[in-house]
TrEMBL record:
The keyword Iron does not apply. The keyword Transcription applies. In the C-terminal section; belongs to the class-I pyridoxal-phosphate-dependent aminotransferase family. GO terms for molecular function: DNA binding; DNA-binding transcription factor activity; pyridoxal phosphate binding. This is DNA-binding transcriptional MocR family regulator. It comes from Zhihengliuella flava. Pfam families: Aminotran_1_2 (PF00155), GntR (PF00392). It comes from the Bacteria. Keywords: DNA-binding, Pyridoxal phosphate, Transcription, Transcription regulation. Residues 26-94 form the HTH gntR-type domain. CDD domains: AAT_like, WHTH_GntR.
Length: 493
């Protein structure tokens, strides 16, 4: 036994309600241990939560002391709980929660690791917070859906397991979602990929030759630009402002650059957060058509509305020609590593060939999981949406107080805030914040070509409130250092 302070406690009646009714076909201890294990694995019972005492649980569940003791012993043996002096039995994820799951942005100097590099001490207090990433954690219940998909797996095991275009059930679920969003889609128009970035890479190879030109708004999601460049494509930039896509500027840039394709992020643009109206979408596709360029529409953030569901149609509703890329990473979970491409029928054969030069298909089990998730809901889980809305508002409120000379618009969706700084100091601020354990991607990370963006800073809000509470005062202190001001106190908060 060791000593530890639990980060939260769970009452016996609350746990009893979460457990539901016992399974009469199994020994009671096995049912109890397994049900608690599922709650932990699914994230409903968080790592570090003190479980009710055995005596309390005996009363709440009407089970014998031996049954409850045996269930707790089983949880400890399997690494899902540990006993602590004074704190009783504490739920834990075997091996501890794994930090990470964020996007591998080009991180110039932060170290060799991709993904999130935040950390916490034994009591769950952060020791570093990674604000270079913006992705929500998995929805509650995901482990159960994996279990259901496992039960379905035997039907696939007799075959070779290669589905270069995707498992049919998932292609159907994705096509049905487009139809529900106002774009009738045949499952044959869908190719499942290992995420949206893989989709952008395949679309670029389909539409552009090495040496060709693509247009992208600046700022934009940087990994897509890097992917285009790796294919030998020259990426020309057109600015996007805090008001959103400027179709007149796009028209001019398409003409002057001779671009054959354009990377379009009409939905809660990463990082700016803007949502293009239907009218803008219509004018945008008209500009593409007039220039003979194809839109590579990245809809990764389309489901991330936070206030009210927007009344907009996918860009594909305005043009038969665009190639749309989608992702399960933000609407469901980044760990699925799944996305897709929706393309016109005429391009599917060529797209399939291009895709097979990159990889031969995504894993079957994860596709079965996503098909089930999408059949239930193609949208962000309501709990995740509520949490994101609250952390977005929290960061805005805190910034108004701690970073009073920064400016931001409250985005109606997405996962991050795009702050305007009063001076071009984003890279210096990033270095000062890193010294305090707050990792940031400076505005210039999101710039295409020579468009500096040193006046800008992206702050994601998909992190937990506890991490944000820890990071924001340290960020303010770093900002004071950059501005040459003495901080008011030591670390604020
Ligand atoms: C606009 C945009 N496109 C693509 C991606 C990558 O998505 P995926 O995880 O599906 O590859 C991201 C991830 O943040 C994104 O924001």
């Amino acid at each position: 036994m060791s000593t530890v302070t639990p980060s939260r406690r769970l009452g016996s009646h609350r746990l009893a309600a979460m457990l539901g009714s016992p399974d009469a076909s199994r020994p009671a201890y096995a049912w109890l241990a397994d049900s608690i294990r599922q709650l932990i694995a699914n994230g409903r019972l968080l790592h570090g939560t003190a479980l009710p005492s055995e005596r309390q649980l005996v009363t709440a569940l009407g089970l014998s002391r031996t049954t409850v003791s045996r269930a707790y012993a089983e949880l400890r043996d399997r690494g899902y709980a540990s006993a602590h002096v004074g704190a009783g039995t504490i739920a834990q994820v075997p091996g501890g929660p794994v930090a990470g799951g964020g996007e591998p942005l080009p991180l110039g100097g932060f170290g060799p690791h991709g993904g999130s590099r935040g950390g916490s001490d034994d009591e769950g207090t952060p020791t570093a917070v990674d604000l270079t990433c913006a992705a929500p954690s998995a929805p509650v219940g995901l482990a159960e859906v994996y279990q259901e998909a496992l039960d379905e797996l035997p039907a696939y095991i007799g075959g070779m397991g290669y589905f270069p275009l995707g498992v049919p059930a998932l292609r159907e679920a994705i096509a049905a979602d487009y139809a529900a969003r106002g774009v009738p889609t045949d499952p044959e128009q869908i190719v499942v990929t290992a995420g949206a970035l893989a989709g952008v890479a395949a679309a670029a190879r389909l539409l552009l030759r090495p040496g060709g030109v693509a247009l992208a708004e600046s700022p934009t999601y940087p990994n897509s630009v890097t992917s285009l460049r790796h294919h030998g494509v020259r990426v020309a930039a057109v600015p996007i402002t805090a008001e959103g896509t400027d179709v007149e500027a796009v028209t001019g840039a398409l003409r002057s650059s001779g671009a054959r394709a354009m990377l379009c992020l009409p939905d809660f643009h990463n990082p700016v957060g803007t949502l293009a109206s239907n009218e803008t979408r219509e004018r945008w596709v008209a500009a593409l058509r007039a220039a003979g360029a194809t839109g590579i529409v990245d809809e990764t953030c389309a489901k991330l509305w936070l206030d009210e569901e927007p009344d907009v149609l996918p860009l594909a509703a305005f043009s038969r020609d665009v190639v749309t890329v989608g992702s399960a990473s933000k609407s469901h979970w980044g760990g699925l590593r799944l996305g897709w491409i929706r393309a016109p029928h005429a391009l599917i054969g060529a797209l399939a060939r291009v895709r097979m030069n990159l990889d031969l298909g995504a894993p079957v089990l994860d596709q079965l999981v996503l098909a089930r998730l999408m059949q239930r809901s193609s949208s962000l889980a309501p709990h995740t949406r509520r949490q994101l809305r609250s952390t977005r508002d929290f960061v805005i409120e805190q910034a108004a107080d701690l970073l009073a000379d920064w400016r931001v618009r409250r985005p109606a969706g997405g996962l991050s805030l795009w702050f305007e700084l009063p001076e071009p100091a984003s890279t210096r601020l990033t270095a000062a914040a890193a010294r305090r354990g707050v990792l940031l991607a400076p505005g210039s990370t999101f710039a295409v070509a020579d468009h500096g963006l040193e006046h800008w800073m992206r702050i994601p809000f998909a992190q937990s409130q506890q991490e944000l509470e820890w990071a924001l005062p340290r960020l303010a202190e770093a900002w004071d250092e950059v501005r040459g001001r003495a901080p008011l106190t030591g670390v604020r908060g």
